[in-house]
Structure formats: C-alpha cells, structure tokens
Write a structure and sequence with these properties.
Largest sheet of chain A: 6 strands, mixed
Keywords (chain A): ATP-binding, Nucleotide-binding, Transport
Radius of gyration of chain B: 23 Å
Shape of chain B: globular
Enzyme class (chain A): translocase
Strand content of chain A: 25-35%
Oligomer: heterodimer
Radius of gyration of chain A: 24 Å
Number of domains of chain A: 2
Number of strands of chain B: 0
Largest sheet of chain B: none
CATH superfamily of chain B: MetI-like
CATH superfamily of the largest domain in chain A: P-loop containing nucleotide triphosphate hydrolases
CATH architecture of chain B: Orthogonal Bundle
Number of helices of chain A: 9
Number of strands of chain A: 18
GO molecular function (chain A): ABC-type quaternary ammonium compound transporting activity; ATP binding; ATP hydrolysis activity
Helix content of chain A: 25-40%
Subunit structure (chain A): The complex is composed of two ATP-binding proteins (OpuCA), two transmembrane proteins (OpuCB and OpuCD) and a solute-binding protein (OpuCC).
Strand order of the largest sheet of chain A: 6-7-8-3-9-10
EC number (chain A): 7.6.2.9
Chain lengths: ~325, ~280
C-alpha cells in the first residue's frame, strides 16, 4: 500500500546533479527519515515533495494523485523548517490560524485550541515568536503545519538548532504526536542517532541517490557499503588484503570488511582463553583511550590499521595506554563489503 | 568599582565634542527660536502676539497648509514608489543591486538649487524637452508648467524617491524566503503573503521613512526657492523671507513660524509611532 511515491525523480542545478533518479515508496502513517551529510540532496528532495523546488524528471504521487506539477498550496503537505519560519508579526494563535484563514476553513478557534493543547503551549496563545524559546517556537511551527491536517508532514532538520536536552524531549514528543495522528512523515536529518531513535524506516542518501533503505536496526547491523558503514555507526572499515594479513587467513573474499566497534573484545597478551573457533585474533597496542560518558573508546593500533573498540563504561578503565592486547573479532560480526 | 567609574569618565570625555556640537548648533538655536517667538517685533516685550498674528493671517495659514499638503503628498507618493522600486531592486543580482544603490545614493544627494536648475533646463518654459517635444509635435508637455504646484510636486517627488529607496531597501533583507514558502504551503497566495506578513514586517521601516520624507519636504527650501521663488506660498519660503529678506525683517514672527514647523514634524512622528504600535502589536 503505497501512500507517497517518488518515481525516478531527477534534478540538477547547472552542471551538477542534485537528485539522481530517486525512487522510493512510503506507507501511510510511516515515519521515514532521509539521512545523509549536507549536500547529499536530502533537503532538495524534501523541498521537491513540498513543491518549493521543481524536478527535472520523474513523478511525485501522494495518495494516488500526481502532484508533480501542482503549486505548494495545492499539495496538502505541511512543512516545518529548521529556522521555524514563524511569522514575526503574528502571535502564536494567529500563526497557527493563518493556514485555516487562507483556506477559509470554519471553526478556526476550536481547531487552533486543540492544536495548542496537543503541542503543550496552553497559555502562550498571545505570545509573539520573539518571546518564545527555540523549542516553543518549533512547537508552534509544528502546530501550524498540523492544524491543516496535511496528508504528509515534511520536517526539514527541525531539531538541529536546539540544544541537546530540549532536542531529546522534542524527539519524543514529535514521535508521540506522529503516532497519535497517524500522519505520514518525512524527516530530514544529518544526525544518525536522531534518525535511529525516531524512524520506522531510514533512507540513507549520498550524492543525490538513496544508497540504502530499511529499518534502523537493518541499516545499523547490515550496511551495504563502506559509506553507510562509516556514516551510520563508526564502523571499523578495513581493506580486505590488510585484514587477511592481520588474521593470517586466505579464505576471506570481498574488497573490505566492516566491524562495529562494540562487538570487538580486548584481551591482555598472555591470557590464554582465546576462542579461535569463533573469533579472529589481531595483535595490537592501545594507542589512546577516550570516554564519551557511558562508553569507553579504545584506539588500538595494529600492524595494518587502527581499530576502534567500544566498551560500556562499567568495569573501569581496564587497559592503560600502551598496553599490548589481542583484539577478538567475532567471525559472524564481520560484514564483507 | 572605581575603575569602572574612571572608564566611564573617559568615555564621556570622548563624547564631549559631540555633546557640545549638539548643544551649540541644535539645542541652542532651538531654544533661541522658541524664546524669540514669544517676543514682540521690537524684541523687548514678551507676548504671544506673533502666534496670534499667524493664526489670524490667511496668508500664513495658507503657507502652512500648502507646506503640509505638498509634504504629505510627495511623501506618500515617494513611499509607494520606493516600496515597489526597492522590491524590484532586490530581484537583481547582487552586482547590479550594488550599482543601482550607488546611483540611488548619488541621486539622493541631488537636491536644492542644482536640481531645480536641471529641471528648469530640461522642462522649463524654454527647456530642452519642452522645445524638443513641441518641435516633434507631441503635446504631452503642452499644458505642463514647471513653475506651478504640479511642477513643484514633480521636483519634490524626484528628490524624495532616492532617499526613500535607500531607507526602505535594507528592510527587504529582513524578509525571509522561508516565510513566503511557509505561507504558500499553508495555502496563502503571493498577495496574501504581502498583505498579512510582508507589509506588516516592512511597516516600521515604511513609517520611519515616511516621517523622514515628510520632515525633509517640510523643511525643503532651496529647491522650492530656486524653482518658484516667492510665487508659491510655502512655510519654509515665508520663514526665510522674514529672517533673511531685505524688505521687512521680522525674526520674531519667523521664529514663531519655525516653532509651528517643528511642531508639525513632531506631531507627524508621534502620530506615526502610535499608528505603528497599533498595527504591529509585537513591537512593544
């Protein structure tokens, strides 16, 4: 059951291709994320769906209707911008009511009131945008888009201008509201953690193409190429020839091997309990230890390359800098690319 | 604590030349003007007769009225043209925008006697265009008289427009593209965007520009003097003839007219401020 269909959409500026033959399909009520680095085309794709950019080739369909050539106001999509884009001369109520007034919809008051309740802004109806915090402004922007009951909600990095704590809160709330209204949502972000927490499905984009799509756990545990592996989870990506040398094996095929840092284990040299059946063993020296709160990250230098190894920070700092160690690499966690 | 005080004193000392300038050349003359206006023609008796004279004289009341009308009219016309012109300018590339602004800046300083003479040379009774068009047989300028109210308005509007464009143009930079996008996604047309968001956001700048244009026109003297001499009854021309003419010097009466001129400008600014607060309630 496809609700939003992007069919072979291509777009370029002058000599540069921004969207390169993109096709994707979303189900109704799905929370989909376009994830990628800046300049990968994710915002352009979102803006094309909104009608704020024209596409050169391809079609965009929502609920079976071809909207490729419709103007933004005919598309029945709502959008929230990174910079909120609230109208500065209107208070919260009028900002939210603007769209209803434009479309001459009845019972504006009750609909706006309901929205204000939903985004938890009761008592702020008379406030002007400059009197609100960033988080509150973003709630208004969300309410302004949702009050129109759009078929699709488009979110263009809506949380990236907010500080960490408010961002986490709004992530949860956004998700709650999305589920409550069962609204098909397309979310754009460059933050892979945010994408993982919020999405039903992630589309990883690179250079104007979707390089992989799937559920957050699919994307995280089975990246299809080096780009996704590196972008998604700090994977250790090692050239296959070098890896074969390190593990003294000739049976491995492929170009590269990707291994998540949290599946690796460190063992001091001299300890004998190495399970060689299940693991590859690589010799190395701890070059650096860093801590990101709950995670300890070791940088282990081997003959061929540096491996990152993550430990949960509960056993204390077990290995000192300069310590000689064996890295245990579980064979089944090695992803051949 | 003491250090801060010392720093403050230094800062104030730096401001001293400015403060002296303001007192000497702005506040001083203003106080003198107000004081003068309450003296009789002999400069000895204190009286309010000068004001009574003005309000009883049809001649002076007409001067005030003419000045108000021409100032309001030229300010309104110029603001409207400038709002549209400044918007058009923003649609050019940055390079062309800079060039247009340079020309605008230059022409905004083109006023007074040189401007009047330019107009006389081009559109006067024996002006270049007047003669050219009559030779060609176009009669568009046949009924046009530069030395009339229409001519005066034309010249006033001419020198007001560049100034208005210079003042309004920067505020267009404050209109975000995403407001337009948000408005269109919410079902608003281009005109509803300008009506509900664009113009209200520009309003402080429009109103401020209007005040400046109004004051500019009220006080304009050289342009009008060179063009119509004393043929046309304007407040600034009357003040000048009372304080600088060689027939009848009446500086006290001139001062009283000056006070009224200042009062109308202050009144206009106050009115503008009130209007704006009413429309833009977010700007408190």
């Amino acid at each position: 059951m496809s609700y939003v269909t992007i069919d072979q959409v291509t777009k370029g500026y002058e000599n540069q291709v921004v969207l390169n033959d993109i096709s994707l399909v979303l189900k109704k009520g799905e929370f989909a994320t376009l994830l990628g680095q800046s300049g990968c085309g994710k915002s352009t794709l979102l803006r094309s769906i909104a009608g704020l950019e024209d596409v050169d080739l391809g079609r965009i369909l929502i609920d079976g209707k071809d909207i490729t050539n419709l103007s933004p106001r005919q598309r029945e999509v709502g959008m929230v911008f990174q910079s909120y884009a609230l109208f500065p001369n209107m208070n919260v109520f009028d900002n939210i009511a603007y769209g209803l007034k434009m479309k001459k919809i009845k019972n504006i008051k009750s609909r706006v009131k309901k929205m204000i309740e939903m985004v938890d802004l009761i008592g702020k109806e008379e406030s002007y945008p400059h009197q609100l915090s960033g988080g509150q402004q973003q709630r208004v922007a969300l309410a302004r888009a949702l009050v129109m009951e759009p078929k699709v909600l488009l979110l263009d990095e809506p949380l990236s201008a907010l500080d960490a704590k408010i961002r986490k809160n709004l992530q949860k709330e956004l998700k709650r509201i999305q589920k409550e209204l069962d609204i098909t949502t397309i979310f754009v972000t460059h933050d892979q953690e945010e994408a993982m927490t919020m999405s039903d499905r992630i589309f990883v984009m690179n250079k104007g193409q979707v390089v992989q799509s799937g559920s957050p756990s699919e994307i995280y545990t089975s990246p299809v190429n080096t780009f996704v592996a590196k972008f998604i989870g700090n994977y250790n990506v090692c050239n296959m020839e070098a890896f074969r040398k390190l593990v003294r094996s000739t049976e491995l095929k492929g170009n590269e091997v990707a291994i998540r840092p949290e599946v690796l284990q460190l063992v001091s040299v001299g300890e004998d309990s190495l399970d060689l059946q299940e693991n590859w063993v690589i010799k190395g020296i701890i070059k650096d230890v860093s801590m990101t709160g709950n995670v300890l990250r070791y940088e282990v230098e081997t003959e061929e390359s540096v491996f990152l190894v993550d430990y949960l920070h509960h056993r204390g700092n077990m290995f000192e800098q300069g310590a000689r160690v064996h890295i245990l690499v579980p064979k089944k966690e090695c992803i051949i690319l | 604590m003491r250090k801060i005080k010392k720093q403050k004193i230094y800062l104030l000392a730096l401001l001293l030349p400015f403060i002296m300038f303001v007192i000497g050349f702005e506040i001083g003359p203003l106080v003198a003007m107000i004081k003068n206006s309450f003296y009789a023609d002999n400069g000895i008796q204190v009286t309010i007769n000068q004001y009574i004279t003005i309000f009883k004289s049809k001649f002076y009341l007409q001067a005030i009225q003419n000045s108000l009308v021409i100032s309001l009219f030229s300010a309104v016309v110029s603001v409207i043209i400038a709002v549209i012109a400044a918007y058009s300018i923003t649609k050019f590339s940055q390079k062309i925008q800079n060039r247009i602004l340079m020309i605008t800046n230059m022409t905004s300083n083109f006023e007074g006697i040189p401007l009047s003479f330019s107009y006389i040379i081009l559109l006067g009774n024996n002006g270049l265009f007047t003669l050219l068009f009559s030779k060609i047989g176009w009669d568009v300028f046949a009924d046009f008289n530069l030395y009339s109210w229409t001519g005066l308005i034309l010249v006033y509007v001419y020198f007001q427009i560049p100034l208005a464009v210079m003042l309004i143009y920067p505020s267009y930079q404050g209109i975000k593209k995403q407001w337009k996008e948000a408005s269109s996604l919410l079902g608003g047309s281009t005109s509803s965007f300008w009506l509900h968001i664009g113009i209200p956001v520009l309003l402080p700048s429009i109103v401020g520009t209007f005040s400046i244009l109004f004051a500019n026109a009220m006080g304009a003297y050289a342009t009008a003097y060179a063009l119509v001499g004393s043929n046309y009854n304007l407040l600034s021309l009357q003040i000048a003839s009372l304080v600088a003419s060689d027939v009848a010097l009446k500086p006290q009466l001139g001062s009283a007219l000056g006070v009224l001129l200042a009062a109308t400008m202050i009144g206009a600014m106050w009115f503008n401020g009130r209007m704006m607060r009413r429309i833009r309630r977010d700007l408190k």
